[in-house]
Amino acid sequence: MNGQRLAIYDRPGAEPAVLFVHATGFHGRCWSQIMGRIPERRSIAVDLRGHGLSSKPESDYTWSVFGNDVAALARGLGLRGVTAVGHSMGGHSITLAATLVPEAFSELILVDPVILRPEAYHGRRWDPHFARKRRDRWASADEMFNRFKDRQPFVQWDVDVLRDYCDYGLVPATDGDGYVLACSPAVEGSIYEASALDDANLYDRLGTIDIPVTIVRAHRPMDTHPAMDMGASPTAPDLVAHFRHGMDIQTQLSHFIPMEAPAMLADLIRGHHIVT
Predict the structure, then answer these.
(1) Does any domain span residue 259?
(2) What are the helix (H) ranges across 174-221?
(3) What is the predicted pLDDT for the residue at 223?
(4) Is residue 228 part of a domain?
(5) Which residues of the chain, if any, have pLDDT below 70?
(6) How far is CA 242 from CA 179, 184, 213, in A?
């Protein structure tokens, strides 16, 4: 797709499908616990470029690139009328994709999509992000899991989601010494640093999205720049007003909503009322 190889996880079920798009630094298998709770629907999860088992180019990690990749994926798979669920940068990506390939989508569920206030798009990169300093090399997924399970923010996660995050978030190191993160710290950091580059013009397109859009956000707004406070919501507080058919749900959770409450999101996808 767009010159890159994108890994997908496609579980059979009834159409229309549900398309899942992950956040910066994650991978498609982080949705497995939600996919397993909607067995009646076909579910497709993607590893975005630079993540998981997908291609890892040296550059071009601006946020609009990911939205264009999702649009290309929708065209390539011939998707029609899907429910698209995107977390963080994944939510931003499916929003852009819905303006490019509107026939592919019937509903968007934007899980804290990091569509910032318009004035935040100042066209400059943020300073180097702390994600660049993440530990990259691990002896095994078990080591990673045991290191994280009692630490913030992972201690708040559903334990099976954390297990999936670790089990599928590593790839063999090229030097043969253990494993490294499937999304390298350099790539993860560069994506966060580019969050203010793309583009305030997205707001001009939001009104063209003529399908239901549900925004699910963390319990309080972020008052620092994006990705500095994962307990809060970096999404513009008034984003819902820019959609024709928007609904906003504020939870009591952190920005890591799919990791903390997979059952809640599965209920939302199935059209059930959720308690936040």
Answers:
(1) yes
(2) 185-193, 202-206
(3) 62
(4) yes
(5) 1-2, 198-200, 223-229, 272-276
(6) 43, 34, 10
